[in-house]
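Hi R.,

Here are the chain sequences for the assembly we discussed:
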Amino acid sequence: MPNKQRINYLFNQCLQQQETIAERGELNQYMMDASLKDIVEECMLEAFYTDKPKESLPIDTQDQILTAIYSSSTKTRNFTLSKTLWRWTSVAAVFLMISVPLIIKTDLHEKILQFSFINNGEKTSVENQTRVEDSLVNESATLEMVDGTKLYLPTLAIGTKISRNGLIVQKSAQNELLLKYELESLHTKIKNAHHTIKTPKGVKYKLTLPDGSIVHLNAASKLVLPYSFSDSSRNVELSGEAYFEVVKDKRRFTVFSQKAGIRQEVKVYGTSFNISAYSDDDSFTTTLVEGSVNVHNLNNKKVSWLKPNEIATYRPTGIEIGKADIDKNLAWINNIFYFEEEELDNVIKQISRWYDVEFKDVPDLPQQKLWAQVSRDIQLIDLLSIIEKTYAIKFKITGKEVYIVN
Amino acid sequence: MKYNTELLHRVSLGDEIAFRKLFDAFHPNVYTTVFRITNDEYIAEDVVQDTFLKVWMNRVDLDEIENFEGWLYTIARNITFNILKKGKNYKQYLAEEGESSLLRIYSNTDYDVQDKDFQNLLQKAIHRLPPKQQQTYKLLKEQYLKRKEVAQILNVSPETVKYNIDQAMKSIRAYCLAHMKDMPLVLLLHFYSKYF
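And here is the predicted structure of the full complex:
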């Protein structure tokens, strides 16, 4: 009967590749001997810690193993929202290649002339034109290109495809854009050259970025795309709010946002998350739905890792991680106002972003909290009457202004 | 130290780049140790795959494991002995039944391949393969064609056929292992790849 010492010796001989044929045979015999199981297993564990010349697997084999491991897992958890999300947008997204008269004009004035047909063909006075101009600027979703060309997105017919400045823009459905880089722009690097997509109050857009990632851009928000994505990174800039479904590839996807006291970068490879970075909010929030992201505080270079269902709240004082309420934070994608123990202050911020109104004489009522889930299709006046029931206040709508009467 | 808690934490969040780093740091020791002890590079390769599959499947708990290295080596050791034991049974079975039994295993009429659950799982695993690998697998493993013949049919080089079948076998093995507690036959798939 061999003792542990003998088995250890045989193991070592093998590990150093010095075993004789007889020793190899002896070890093989012990390895299969059920009565030696415990000793052999103990020696085997020690063998891992023994110093020895090590070999790696060929790179091809390594890649194959990792591919096999990743592909083995059951499909990544489907985020329930995304199934119901945007169902309405998929209605008849017909891709007609219509050649439209170029309604993209760098000169805003020409734009207004083209737009005069909106007023039933009536000639508009200069004052009216100014008003149209203002409303166009304020109410249209726009895409502003590197050279200053501005596309007024509502004026594009569905199916329209425009190629300019290295970017192919296709309006695939109402409030949806497909963006692709032209081949040449992929090989051109221009620093500080951007395309900017802006949504006004009350309008959301769904964007498919050149890498296939999907961005739901909330109202009153702005997404800045570089002239092209580099080979190693995909960097965009956000102000306002957006829900990202980032397609996994080897280039890191970074979302940069900033305002006074806050400079943030959210870095991911492939995952779904929501960023709210409105400059009139006290804080930026990043809500992770699945995968992993890290949130960089560029002011002090600190990095926070988020797990799914966690939210990072970044105030000028720093970043805090907490448990996220996904339903609440992503309700806007489902076209819902979701107020849960919400203070009046936050409630009216959300309302003013959606209905494009300004609240006046807002009282400070920190004790009173609102609970409500309301469709965003509701009329402003109906929504306000719901809120009136919670807070002991009355609203008075005057044009674009809402006065609060205590 | 070859790893740190931050790396494990990142793996626990599903970060594939962190997992790759972990794999790079530890697989050479697992591979070399098992190869030297078993004197079988195929077994060593399978142990590496099965071990890291287990790490990946249990990644959410990585944060709570105090001694990762010890945990990893224990898994690797247990998998090694499991494969050796199965291999011994299998060789015995081959010796008793003769080489022709291999064909019967593949035509699903014998041994534990009869297990319906396993068959279903295997079919699912095959279905999940990318088209090229699926074709290669079917021609090689279900129609028993030679690698050269498959290369001709698919109009690719024999090296490509080898690469595709290697990846297919690994993916099938990982998928089956991930979805069944005990997978006697699939653990032995590498034997088949050697015979065919």
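The two ends of chain B are 43 Å apart (CA to CA). Residues 5-94 of chain B form a domain with the Rna Polymerase Sigma Factor; Chain: A fold (CATH 1.10.1740.10).

Let me know if anything looks off.

Best,
T.
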